């Protein structure tokens, strides 16, 4: 490691992991197929809680997306000798859940948009809200209080997700 301090390398490689997670969650339109084939209307008209159904769909998507990162993270952790492995795992789990919730909210808000320029629209709306999360997650190695901020971020989006999804879908289906 000639020329670089250990702190720089740790932040740099954690940043690469979070950018990889960001680009794996961004291009997804979580509910678009369900909206097009009428499944969302059936969910709304059924007696089941719509928020629980959609949250379980998001959690299933999160498990599939994060499994690849979970398999490769121990190897990266050994190569770059991260200082706090338990804190990195905690950050990886909580931060990726927040990524999933935020991308789910943004994709739900954009359900009515029928356009081929979805990626550019989503990048303009989603990236500014994900930037503080990436900063919290990459600096968790040296700044312990960012873990508290990350937990607050998760609680905020766990609260906002059911509200924004239900309002958006009710307006969208009533049209």
TrEMBL record:
Compartments reported by the entry: Membrane
GO biological process: one example: cytochrome c biosynthetic process
Membrane topology (UniProt): Multi-pass membrane protein
GO molecular function list: heme transmembrane transporter activity
Pfam families in the record: CcmB (PF03379)
Record bears the keyword Ligase: no
Name under which the protein is recorded: Cytochrome c biogenesis B
Originating species: Polytrichum commune
Lineage: Eukaryota, Viridiplantae, Streptophyta, Embryophyta, Bryophyta
